[in-house]
Amino acid sequence: MNRTSMKSLKPIYIYIAALFLITLFIRILLINYYDFNLGGIEPNVIYGIQRILLGQPLYQDPSAGSYAIIQYTPFWYYLIAGIAKLMSHDNYRQGLDVQGLYVLCRVVALIFNLLTAGVCMLIIRRWGISWLRSLVFAMPSLMVLTVHYYTRGDSMHLFLFVAAIYAYICYQEKRKLLHVISAALFSAACIMTKQSGVLVAGIISIGFFADRKYDVALLYVACLALFSWGIARSFNQGDWYTFYQNTVLGLKNGIDLSFLYTIFISQFFLDMVPCYILGGLMIFIAMKKVADKTYQTLLLGMACSWLFAVITGLKIGSSNNYFTEFLILLLVSLPYLLYNEQGKHVLFTYLGKKATTRVVAYIAFFILITSKTSGLFTAMYIEKNFKNDKKEYTNDQMLYEYFRNVLNIRSGEYVFFTERRYLDNVFVNYSIMPTKDVVAQTYSANKTTFDYSGLIKKMNLGLIKYIITDKRRDDINICADSLPFIWFDKDRFRLIAHVSGYSIYKWSPTGVL
After folding, report:
1. What is the pLDDT of residues 209-247, one digit of tens each?
2. pLDDT tens digits, one per residue of 15-57
3. Contact 260/221 with Cβ under 8 angstroms?
4. Is the pLDDT of residue 10 over 80?
5. What is the DSSP letter of 491?
């Protein structure tokens, strides 16, 4: 890159750095927010961590016990639980400081997000771009992350994803088997953090086969299988059936074909549409004109990531976060595109002016990072979609203290909540069906995936001792819309108190207290 081109890019660097600082500032500000769900149904993740801290197995039979489904593979849960155990406060170590766990998750998630940007910088640096410029080009990798990367294990998953890609790129350049083993280790850890980590294993495997490195591919797959088994075995203690029930059957949410056009027309996807076009152009042009191995690897990853996002996105409950890997690889590829011959490829001429791939890249890039940053800023300060509701957390804690000090709740007595909020986590030792949203999705997709007949038989016979409803929506059967098998006999449950905005109903065998 010549000095003239670098000088002309100074305003762009300043713009990127400014958006990065805005995003980082908001992310830091959100760490201690009292919001039980910034995105991605976070109470379920916190619940899994709490189970480990309480000395309980992460996975259990979803049709027994507390009737919970832990959807994701175990690495993130155990990492956060392990860090929490190092804390000095007993409530922290025992999983009872719910807000403290949210804060811890958000801090660690942000660290992983920044590490992801760091690995992106290392990849960009391999093209001979200076460290400072590589850093600037890597900054957008933080801006494009959805709220799913603020608290959940997706943050760790993405870091391991790009780390595996980087290890594979290192192998392509240096041909050392240590890099193959490193790629396998990162890939296995990625899969054991979130099941979609199989994507990076697919990308790397395809890359080896495309290069006709069949023996190296075999080594990679063997190491991947060994590392994956080792991680799962150490965390799951050999209970493979419940592991399968939760991490495989728990993902069976049903299919929604509307996703195929949602990704082009929904407001949450529109800023990515130019990136779809740009990615397609980059791949099409590079097929004949680009020999750079790193660039080829990134384009292969882009193509696989986009297809993977579309196919897996057909699952009900999918969102724009499914395209994050595609966007990250696209952003990391842009420096090569902008300063090499591929960027000069003329797409068409209009009024005597040439529209090149570089022009399309700039347009797509600025639409993407501007939209993502302004969307985050708007949600935080204007629309206030991120609520700092400490009172809600305080009310839930007061309700818990009422149960302990007034109702003298005992071990083995279950409470059913018609509202989510912090309740299932605050009452972690007593809550039944704490992951209702996941249960509702798997049940609506296939009523036979899990057998809830035992719950149905016992729910009105004393299994559930208390029902808590929002005083403003005072109906113990309000969950029947999404969970039709949850139908309480109103003659068996009597209102006993109103506390902190909640109504408390207690079971009685005769209906009289």
Report:
1. 998 999 999 999 999 999 999 999 888 766 889 999 999
2. 999 999 999 999 999 999 999 998 888 999 999 999 999 999 9
3. no
4. no
5. T
214-236 helix and 177-191 helix, angle to the nearest 10 degrees: 40
Q: Which of 32-41, 103-112, 295-304 has the lowest mean pLDDT?
A: 32-41
Rounded CA separation 49/32 (Å): 18
| Pair of tokens at residue 44 | 């379920």
* Number of helical (H) and strand (E) elements in the chain, helices listed first: 22, 6
* The pair of three-digit structure tokens given for residue 141, joined into one six-digit string: 């990798």
Strand extents, DSSP E, 316-419: 346-350, 353-356, 414-417
Q: Which of 480, 431, 486, 497 is nearest to 457 (CA)?
A: 486
Q: What is the pLDDT of residue 9?
A: 63
Percent of the chain with pLDDT over 70: 96
The sign of the torsion formed by the CA atoms of 285, 142, 72, 440 equals: negative
- 59: its two tokens: 């996975």
Query: Which one, of 303, 286, 273, 297, lies nearest residue 337 by Cα?
Result: 286
Q: If residue 318 lies in a helix (H) or strand (E), which one and from where to where?
A: none
Kindly state the average pLDDT of the residues 312-335.
91
Burial class (CB in 10 A: 0-12, 13-18, 19+), 8: exposed
Paired residues of 415 in beta bridges: 431, 466
pLDDT at 95 (0 to 100): 81
Angle between helices 98-125 and 10-30 (to 10 degrees): 160
Q: Are 147 and 42 in contact (CB under 8 A)?
A: no
Q: How far apart are CA 336 and CA 141, in angstroms?
A: 16
Nearest to 507 by CA among 493, 497, 495: 493
CB 324 within 8 A of CB 158: yes
Strand partners, 315: 255
DSSP tag of 431: B
Give strand pairing partners of 353. Answer: 350
Q: Which residues pair with 419 in a beta bridge?
A: none
Tokens of 390: 């400490």
Q: Could you give the strand order of the β-sheet that contains 414-417, starting from the edge strand earlier in sequence?
A: 414-417, 464-470, 502-507, 493-499
Give bridge partners of residue 431 from the DSSP assignment. Answer: 415
Report d(CA 326, CA 300) in Å as an integer: 10
Tokens of 379: 């949600």
